[in-house]
Design brief:
The chain is mostly helical. The chain has one domain. Helices cover 52% and strands 10% of the residues. The chain has 12 helices and 5 strands. The chain has a 3-stranded antiparallel sheet with strand order 4-3-5.
């Protein structure tokens, strides 16, 4: 909080998006899933019916990577339950998990669930706030949702944020956020708006975790990063060879 006090000489309100507008509804979340490919490969190479039995008995937990302490992920039992429910909707099948996923219509949905099981953690953030963080990381305005999720944008973001000191990026994000509020004539007095301090702290925390997640991903040769958002079709998650539709057909 020292940065906040020093900047304004005073002892978050709604967030400000990349275009300077106040955002009141930020329910949609941007998600970066870190996936351990060794764990995922073991799942995909297992026979479909055998995997169901193993998952049902909790015997696949031994291949699930250890959780990264600062990042979120579903509990084992919750992740297993979602996978089992989805597999039941598909029914018994012959072949490996990968072969089955390639043959059914919504194989990418299953792949996304298996990726979440094979994940040591993921970064999640309201989409409206992601605009701000990527604006700062890129040094330019993210113009729209297509730009926000484009492969080119994320290639540059990853290049700029990998191994960057977390505090350095968080400070830039918070200063940028305060500048935007000041230009719009919005208050930065916590007495007038009690949400200012919690929002400031959220921006600092989320921006640090973004750097942390990207650095963990890029510094582990066994891991890949999958970008997506809530309510996005599974086939549209990920970029290039790691787009889920492409990944199934590699």
């Amino acid at each position: 909080m020292k940065l906040f006090d020093d900047y304004f000489g005073i002892t978050d309100s709604d967030d400000i998006k990349a275009d300077g507008l106040l955002v009141n509804n930020m329910g949609i979340e941007t998600v970066l899933i870190i996936v351990n490919e060794k764990s995922l490969k073991e799942i995909l190479e297992t026979e479909w019916n055998e995997l169901y039995q193993l998952m049902d008995k909790g015997k696949m937990r031994q291949i699930r990577p250890g959780k990264l302490p600062r990042l979120n992920r579903s509990f084992d039992i919750d992740c297993e339950a979602e996978i089992l429910d989805w597999m039941e909707s598909v029914g018994e099948q012959d072949g490996t998990v990968k072969q089955v996923l390639e043959e059914i219509d919504d194989g990418e949905e299953g792949l996304l669930q298996f990726m979440q099981f094979a994940s040591p953690g993921q970064w999640e953030c309201w989409e409206a706030r992601t605009y701000l963080y990527l604006d700062v990381a890129m040094g330019r305005e993210i113009t729209d949702r297509a730009d926000l999720y484009s492969s080119q944008t994320w290639e540059e973001v990853v290049e700029k944020l990998t191994n960057l000191p977390e505090e350095e990026f968080a400070e830039k994000v918070c200063i940028d956020w305060m500048d935007r509020r000041k230009k719009l004539g919005e208050t930065l007095d916590e007495k007038e708006d009690p949400k200012i301090i919690p929002t400031y702290e959220a921006h600092s925390r989320n921006s640090k975790l973004l750097v942390h997640a990207i650095t963990e991903w890029k510094n582990n040769a066994d891991c890949i990063g999958i970008i997506g958002r809530e309510h996005l079709e599974a086939s549209q998650w990920g970029h290039g060879d790691y787009n889920l539709a492409n990944y199934l057909r590699r």
